[in-house]
Amino acid sequence: MRFVLAIVAFVLAAAMIVLGIAQRTVFLEPASTSVSTTVADDVRFAVIEPSALTAFPGSQTLTITGSDTVFAAYGRSGDVKAWLADEPYDDIRQVKNTARLSSKLTEAPAAAGEASTDAPAGAPVARQSTDPVGSDLWLQEFSGKGSLTTTINVPDGIAVIVASDGTKPAPTKITITWPTDNSTPMAGPLIAGGGALAVIGLILYLWALIHLRRSHGPRRNLPRGPRMPRLPRVPRPKSIKASEITGPRRSITRKFIATVPVLLVTGLVLSGCSADFWPSSPATPDAAASATAAATDVPKAVKDVPPPAVTVPQLERIVRRIAVLTTDADAKLNGDALAARFTGPALEQRLANYKIRAAIADYPALPALPASPLTLTLPQQSSTWPRVVMTVIQSADDAAVAPTAIVLRQETPRSAYLIEYAVQLEAAAKVPDVAPATIGAPIIAPDSKLLLLPPGEVAAAYADILLQGDKSPSYGLFQVKGDTFRTQVGLDKKNEKRAALPTTASIDFAAAVGAGSPVALATNDSGSIVAVSITETETVKPVDAGATVSPEGASKALSGVSATAKGIQSTYGDQLLFHVPAAGSSDKIVLLGFAQGLISSTELP
């Protein structure tokens, strides 16, 4: 019976080990699932729709070939389609309820390429670049020579645009691969269990051998048979030592015992080399977080709420690009390069600074634009254009430098984000609480009555305070404490300039709303952060006949006039950032930051 049990154990052990090994070899499922499609030869763009990217769970590995230059980028599906505008493209999506992809050419609208009827006859139609590389809309982009393979992890609502350089045909072969779960959680237990059962069978086998040897020993108290005649005596055979009998058996036993570690080690190595061999426990929160780390820069859709204009990683990339360009332009006084990333009051002030520095070598430059880190990001909630985003950047090199707040605007899907306002925050400024960057904030209309003062009226009210001081009707609406800009250019400072002027000349001051459009983004307290611009002018004229006015420094550099009997008008540009509380609030409007600079100086006619 012991031999039978040992044989059964050996058979079961062999079956379990073979089955466990088979699960990792002949029965092993593929480690990935792939689908492919082709793009029409003469199409310049292809779009992989969200249905194709999420046809199977898990991260997506894109393999794109078929052109000398390969470019791919992903972004919100609506942003990708907006960038394409009237361009024909190959629409790649999953065939419903199948594991296949379809590729269909989507033509441009019939009248999309025609000139607007409002344009003058014969006027050229301006077209923006068709090169998708470097667009601010993309959440991430990739490029390669001849072929491109990259892995992304994006949720539903994200599309991928594929192109060459925007002018040549797009790559013709696209393959999407998803990892599949081919783990065999029973392989490890089967192999380990088979090894353990083999050891048990070996023990049973040895036990059976020992029992058999003992059962063949001398028998006592046997019944006596008939007495046999005595035979002649023969020589006694030489006695055999016990060691000569049991020696070979011990040697066999040692060989069997020596195989036990080999079986155990083999089983452990084979079954313990991968977690795929064993049943897995439920994923921990940390594991789940790391598995989706590649998709953290993708905005989550909120029902009935427009998505944020940008994500934080997207804006960080945009700010880095602008900071590098600005640093180079500041060093070379390159206004043409600067215009690629600045507009409105921010561009006007920097260009004037370049002109002054070109004439006066030691004239101070404007504060450098930090590249990181972004300490606050407030994008507009918008799926249309233009789009606005505000961010605060702290200098990574010098924490003592005041943070810089910038307001960026994107006019069209193919336009770059341009800095419209760039101000230094006040030392005592406390930026109000705002919505998370993943949600964004709605834009407040310039004529909104929901604020203590409509955004469109803030600039005019503050300009009046700079001219009249506490006699201004708007004086009580704005907080005085912490407003260092008012002490630098307010009524008291203007009176000091007037008193210091010689009696042979007169000076007049004026202030008006600047050319920059007001930007207002909602805050959590039902108020708004408002960016506006003001232009202040100083007009100096000679009083006595024959007297002249001699501008100096920056005014002379911009006007090109050494002396004039007509007079000089100098214009300063002010960029201002306010927190405007909600209507009915007892709080006052607070100046958060400002930037000022001479932007023009001309001789009076």
Please provide a written account of the structure.
- There is one protein chain.
- A hairpin with a 5-residue loop joins strand 14 and strand 15 (528-542).
- The termini are far apart.
- The chain folds into 3 domains: 1-24 and 186-211; 32-108 and 130-179, no CATH class; 312-603, no CATH class.
- By secondary structure, the protein is an alpha+beta fold.
- The protein has helices at residues 2-23, 50-53, 77-84, 187-215, 242-272, 285-291, 312-332, 335-338, 344-359, 455-468, 484-489, 491-500, 553-559; strands at residues 32-38, 45-48, 60-76, 89-94, 101-106, 140-152, 158-163, 173-179, 374-379, 387-393, 404-410, 418-425, 505-513, 519-522, 528-542, 568-580, 590-603.
- The strands form 2 sheets. Strands 9, 10, 11, 12, 13, 14, 15, 16 and 17 form a 9-stranded antiparallel sheet that branches. Strands 1, 2, 3, 4, 5, 6, 7 and 8 form an 8-stranded mixed sheet that branches.
